[in-house]
Amino acid sequence: MPKPATASDLVAPKEDLIRYHREMVYLRHFEEKSNFAYRQGKAGGYLHVYIGMEPLAVGWLNNIRKGYDYVITAYRDHGHALQLGSDPTATMAEIMGRSGGLSRGKGGSMHLYDIANQFYGGWGIVGGHTALAGGLALAAKYRKEDRVTLCYLGDGASNAGVFFETMNMCGLWDLPIIFIIENNLYAMGTALERHAADPELYKRGFPFKHDYERVDGHDMVTVLKDSKRIIDRCRETSKPCVVEAMTWRTVGHGAADNDRQLYRTKAEEDEMAKRDCLYLYEKYLEDNGVLTRAQMDQIDAEELEKAEKVYDDASESPHPEIEEVYSNVYTDMEPEKGH
Amino acid sequence: MPKPATASDLVAPKEDLIRYHREMVYLRHFEEKSNFAYRQGKAGGYLHVYIGMEPLAVGWLNNIRKGYDYVITAYRDHGHALQLGSDPTATMAEIMGRSGGLSRGKGGSMHLYDIANQFYGGWGIVGGHTALAGGLALAAKYRKEDRVTLCYLGDGASNAGVFFETMNMCGLWDLPIIFIIENNLYAMGTALERHAADPELYKRGFPFKHDYERVDGHDMVTVLKDSKRIIDRCRETSKPCVVEAMTWRTVGHGAADNDRQLYRTKAEEDEMAKRDCLYLYEKYLEDNGVLTRAQMDQIDAEELEKAEKVYDDASESPHPEIEEVYSNVYTDMEPEKGH
Amino acid sequence: MSSTTMTYREAIRLALMEEMDRDENVFIMGEDIGKYKGTFRVTDGLFEKYCQNTSDWLHEPPHPEIQDGVGRRVIDTPITEPGIVGMATGAAMTGLRPVVEMMTMSFAILALDQIINHAAKIHYMTDGQISVPLVIRGPGGAANQLSAQHSHSIEGWFAHVPGLKVVAPATPDCAKGMLKAAIRDDNPVIFTENPGLYAMKGEVTDDVDYTIPFGKARIARVGSDISLICYSRMVHVCLAAADKLAEEGINAEVVDVRSLLPLDTETIYNSVAKTHRAVVVYEDWKSGGFGAEIAARIGQDCFDDLDAPVGRVGGLNVPTPYSRVLELQCIPNEHDVIAEVKKIG
Amino acid sequence: MSSTTMTYREAIRLALMEEMDRDENVFIMGEDIGKYKGTFRVTDGLFEKYCQNTSDWLHEPPHPEIQDGVGRRVIDTPITEPGIVGMATGAAMTGLRPVVEMMTMSFAILALDQIINHAAKIHYMTDGQISVPLVIRGPGGAANQLSAQHSHSIEGWFAHVPGLKVVAPATPDCAKGMLKAAIRDDNPVIFTENPGLYAMKGEVTDDVDYTIPFGKARIARVGSDISLICYSRMVHVCLAAADKLAEEGINAEVVDVRSLLPLDTETIYNSVAKTHRAVVVYEDWKSGGFGAEIAARIGQDCFDDLDAPVGRVGGLNVPTPYSRVLELQCIPNEHDVIAEVKKIG
Ligand SMILES: Cc1ncc(C[n+]2csc(CCOP(=O)(O)OP(=O)(O)O)c2C)c(N)n1
Ligand SMILES: Cc1ncc(C[n+]2csc(CCOP(=O)(O)OP(=O)(O)O)c2C)c(N)n1
Ligand SMILES: [Mg+2]
Ligand SMILES: [Mg+2]
Question: Using an 8 Å Cβ cutoff, are B40 and B92 in contact?
Fold first, then answer.
């Protein structure tokens, strides 16, 4: 039994570390439920979970000013919504396309939005949202506010032309934005080395006078340190920054991707499993006497139960009324109706 | 009177140096005539001349395999066409929209093409042609040929998203292409520092494993050396490369740009005039005893006369027949006719 | 109400200034719209008016030699339409009201993904959580030998997209009143200006709160024998045709649709109910242009009123050629309108 | 002629293979079309067939761990549609015949500038010096809860663009015959496949040189009382509607347009001349969709044949919602067709 660490050894106050753990565990159970919903036919379309990548949501978003800083990501967005405070049942209901959903079922898994928490989605066009993110940062500077914009994008998205155009304008005008490239080594079925001329994606910030670096995305402790440092710096300097966070999706690209061996080997997966973020973090908590295995099992059981209740409650939410198909196309008028 | 250089001191055989001079002088007169055509109302729309930038066409294109290597540029394309061997009268006729033009008047100044000489235009959408260029290079590699593709683009165009997407694919697949960024310090009325986060544009090749460097575009002698070295390397290695060539347009952005002082000072223009490429080159020829001032004046007179004849001949070319409006929309059918 | 004579260009500029004065959230961005005044000189004077002091700068001068900073309310951008529109949309999501100038609407084609698949869908995908008070304006249509890549009329594509509003005013007064309405609208609005209209003069209502609501067509000429349905510069082509037709005793009514989405079918149908004949006129490529939608609606909804088939006059179905003689063939003129009027009989 | 039963998906795959075998200049490129087989599994087996040996590689394996090189005739690309289409166009300018797969046609919106303002105009701008034998194919239209950004039918926009050809086959046989024709065509062709059709089975003619020329509509069902004009998956919706209408004694003819540009108006008009009634059916947003063009033409050119207004059935004018119950509201079904048939009377 290792000797308990003194508070000062820890990367964050003990109670925070425990909360982060709960959040990670909860997110993982939530995502399992999301996939389950898809298999049950309660969710359709494209559905992408965050399993294996949790620290990028839990770690980074615990170091921003929640409800003040702007956050935007692509379609792999469940974790960001939950982490920013979206009601889990409303989030799951949206994934199920129900009237109790964040957008009453109009958006779905790929398009979660929760403006009350300054979560700007939730986007389906690879790379497209990076320009919107630039606009959020532009708005902050226009209003002379010190909000930071966090824009997540995938390694595949980092090839998109509009991302470079946006980086250029952010560098040109010194906009306070952090682009977090979630480098999980694959763009759907295409390996990093097969889609990026240079797999060191952080270099893409170089031609635009951004700060740029590659960081680890597996080890929660490192993530917490890096994210705090980078977010604080961005808020201070109002300079844009490209962060390549090395991570890994344990599961398929989307709920429909049932044959990962088309593009990566079992051996590779086993190798990466050893660096599973939750496993690493729990080891840290245990080694430093923050939590015992028993306590963690307890937490795991509690969070699983929560996730199950959310799943059941969301399932109860009714489908939207048919008339709603016409609502909110415009703020002030209805579209012409009928076929 | 400086002592004549021995052949070995010279960057190229004497007769070549003299030919290059003729080509530069001729191009300048041709462009003056192009602007004149616009002022006379014989040319319309957008017309952009190459005055001040001649070495980028004359120098580089004398070091490729003409008629074999692919060349493509944007709308500032007169010099490239002439240098690749397009009939000057047909070129001027195209600028005037006449039936004797390279494309029988359908393209105009911005859209010169001469496939017989492997000149692929001639494009109006800023940045758009860089992707076509990547396709030319892809075709060469697909056919296992050792053609090099030269793609010219402006400093303003180097911000375009599709350019980055193309650089990525060229780097990914090692395509034999050279992107020559004609950095003339302005994108229409916008100064380099106002449109590029980092004015050192050659850096844009860095994230894509391209060779990249900044070279001089004023001094013909340097241009001849650099272009030979870079073109030969590209053909050998079949690796893509980004070259930022520092240059300067002596005139307005286009024939219609009549108020340059909206975006640059008279002082700056006077400063740059001292580095006018033709002035520098003639000084070199004189200092090295290649040509005397008298000989150069002679050449100047001859080339001016040629340009004037081209202008007059082109003016004689009839306008296209009205029915031609429908021809060559498709290779094998006519579009539906009428209003 | 009092009015002032000004050009279409000046009317747009005045609308921009009035709205920028009225609302601190309104700003303009685009290529060369600052000191360069815009290629069609629409934004002349705005940089000087709104970006005088360092406090008016979004960013300090990027380079010592360059005196001016980047304007905060007049933002010169790089030539990156997708990025520009996307960033404007992102800013609009937070409540700012950007007005983006497209140097020509042909360049908006590069930004269609941002316009159609982002801006236009945000209010719906968020079920009303976010609105996008964005205006995209610029010259649409052929000018004078700009060639194939620069001469598009793409208002029809936009008018096909739920979530967008699309207007195409034909007069200085409409330009001012509708641009102000567009800027005050909480939805993304495409505002297209035909380059041939900029120099046109007209009376413009003086009231700073004079706006023209969308979805209301305008009877540009009252007539009884046939309805010429049109918008933007084609309104003037139709008026010219109407004058000529009048000489032959045909009294044409000219309906300036001016708002394509929403579309004022009521006014159009009332006109057709009166004249029993209609010809739809537009500059865009004839096949698949928005005029087809208008014609299809009249054909179906006014079936019993029609004494003749609904005629159409559109641009030739070819890329716009450079040669002036060929270019002129492509753009509909009053003779083409008259020919179609006679053809439908 | 002998035929084989296969799915629409298999028919497309077979067409690709036959043409790749026939002509060394034909190659395919797109996202995840290699070992991943394409998201709709259309290109299953092609990488294995054409990229076995190092000599079949455009580029050696980018990384030691990765065994496979980049295929030369099956090129996996990054997710950069503008660049992909532009590079394919550039390659086509030299005489190669690329077939680009869009993972969904909704992503072609990003590449519209390359398609419309480059590929479609090159032959004209060069006055015939260059042709662009390019095919862009992929699923267009709503599938199953793909949400607003992934569910577009954009064939109508393409069909509006001179220089492009646009086809939308409804059966496996048409898919194979028309894709082969598209690949052999020297002009840029947009080939759209509705995701709902991939699993559909049908008889496919065996001949490797069997192609279906563009501009010829197909009578999918002979009838006498009304013409249902449609294409792609809506052909099957119309056939279902026709069966139901038959029960009520209404004998509908179903015209599968299949080629939008060029459009076979002759076959459409002949059908209307026979039935005196027409309803145009398409999945795209109703307002401004290509069905409007077809309806407008029938309305004008068949004016004297028509006993009733030309009806239209299109998708609802809203972004496609995620909720399945709402999504189903948006897509026309046989009941909507029947309702319109009754409405026009
Ligand atoms: C413009 C566009 N092209 C293609 C797609 C289809 N698509 C969805 S996700 C995806 C892979 C993206 O990979 P990456 O950016 O690495 O994100 P990850 O899924 O790994 O988080 C693709 C190709 C899309 N949504 N948008
Ligand atoms: C996509 C697009 N946007 C805007 C324009 C209008 N435009 C034509 S040239 C030009 C400036 C380009 O500058 P640069 O790339 O530096 O080339 P240069 O003219 O200096 O040779 C602009 C903005 C265009 N043609 N295409
Ligand atoms: Mg990835
Ligand atoms: Mg320049």
Answer: no
pTM of the model: 0.98
User: If you search the block for the tokens 């990466």, which residue do you land on?
Assistant: A272
Can you list the residues of chain D whose pLDDT is less than 50?
none
| CA D130-D132-D135 angle, 5° bins | 175
Interval A76-113: pLDDT, tens: 999 999 999 999 999 999 999 999 999 999 999 999 99
The distance between the two most distant Cα atoms of chain B, rounded to a whole number of Å, is 71
pLDDT average, residue stretch B13-33: 98
Determine whether D150 is an active site residue.
yes
What average pLDDT does the structure give for chain D?
A: 97
- Concatenating the DSSP letter of every residue in C212-268 gives --TT--EEEE--SSEEEEE-TTHHHHHHHHHHHHHHTT--EEEEE--EEETT-HHHH
Beta strands in chain B (DSSP E): 70-72, 149-154, 177-183, 186-187, 190-191, 211-216, 241-246
User: Which of D48, D150, D160, D293 does the annotation list as catalytic?
Assistant: D150
- Dihedral sign, Cα of residue C272, residue C274, residue C276, residue C279: negative
| Atom number of ligand 2 nearest to Cα B76 | 21
Alpha helices in D37-106 (DSSP H): 46-50, 81-93
Residue B5 pLDDT > 70: no
Among candidate residues A163, A147, A255, A170, the one with its CA nearest the CA of residue A201: A163
3-state secondary structure of A71: strand
pLDDT for A5: 62
pLDDT of A7: 65
Min Cα distance C306 → chain A (Å) is 24
What pLDDT, on the 0 to 100 scale, is given for residue A3?
Answer: 58
Average pLDDT, chain B: 96
Please list the ranges in chain A whose pLDDT falls under 70. 1-5, 7-8
Does residue B1 register a pLDDT over 50?
A: no
Output phi, psi for C174, to 5 deg: -65, -40
Nearest to D218 by CA among D178, D165, D182, D163: D178
pLDDT tens digit sequence for B198-255: 999 999 999 999 999 999 999 999 999 999 999 999 999 999 999 999 999 999 999 9
Vertex D103, ends D98 and D104: CA angle to 5°? 115
Q: Are C317 and C223 spatial neighbours (Cβ–Cβ below 8 Å)?
A: no
CA distances from D49 to C78, C109, C119, C195, D207 (A): 45, 38, 43, 54, 21
Rounded to whole angstroms, how far apart are CA atoms B297 and A132? 58
Interface test with A, best of D47, D144, D147 (most A CBs within 10 A): D147
Which atom of ligand 1 approaches the CA of A253 most closely? 19
* The residue type at C270: N
Cα(B162)–Cα(B128) distance, integer angstroms: 7
First-to-last C-alpha distance (Å) of chain A: 70
Tokens of A219: 């080890």
State the Rg of chain A over Cα.
Answer: 20
Contacts 24+ apart (CB under 8 A), D69-72: D70/A194, D70/B172, D70/B173, D71/D34, D71/D47, D72/B142, D72/D27
CA distance C57 to chain D (A): 32
Q: What is the average pLDDT across B301-326?
A: 98
pLDDT digits (tens, 9 = 90+) for A123-135: 999 999 999 999 9
Contact B191, B264 (CB under 8 A): yes
Active-site residue, from C150, C160, C276, C293: C150
- Strands D70-71, D3-7: pairing is unpaired
The whole-angstrom separation of Cα D185 and Cα D24 is 15
With a cut of 50, which residues of chain C have pLDDT below it? none
Q: Are strands C278-285 and C311-315 parallel, antiparallel or unpaired?
A: parallel
Distances in Å between the Cα of B141 and the Cα atoms of B162, C331, D70 are 21, 43, 12
Of B292, B198, B202, B217, nearest in space to B53 by CA = B217
